[in-house]
Design a protein that fits this description.
This protein has about 80 residues and is an all-alpha fold. The protein has one domain. Helix content is about 90%, strand content about 0%. It contains two helices and no strands. The chain has helices spanning about 1-5, 10-75. It is rod-shaped.
Length: about 80
């Protein structure tokens, strides 16, 4: 960059900056992909946790329903 201050048309410095820009774009793309993978993984884990909680809740409700049915059938047998 300092070379361009003294010689704004320095072709080697301009070429070097162009190469750095290409590297930056590539690193940015890799960073974006990593962030997307991490976000996707967190979302997937969140969905699995919601599904586990839902399944536990359903199982609890089914047990409660079965207990109520047993109490009901015992009440009518008397």
């Amino acid at each position: 960059m300092n070379t361009l201050v003294e010689s704004p048309q320095d072709s080697e410095s301009i070429a070097a900056l162009g190469g750095l820009q290409e590297e930056y774009v590539e690193l940015f793309d890799f960073s974006e992909a990593i962030a997307m993978d991490a976000t996707t993984a967190r979302v997937s884990e969140g969905k699995r946790e919601v599904r586990r909680k839902k399944d536990r809740h359903i199982a609890d409700l089914q047990r409660e329903l079965e207990e109520l049915r047993e109490k009901k059938s015992g009440f009518f047998r008397r």
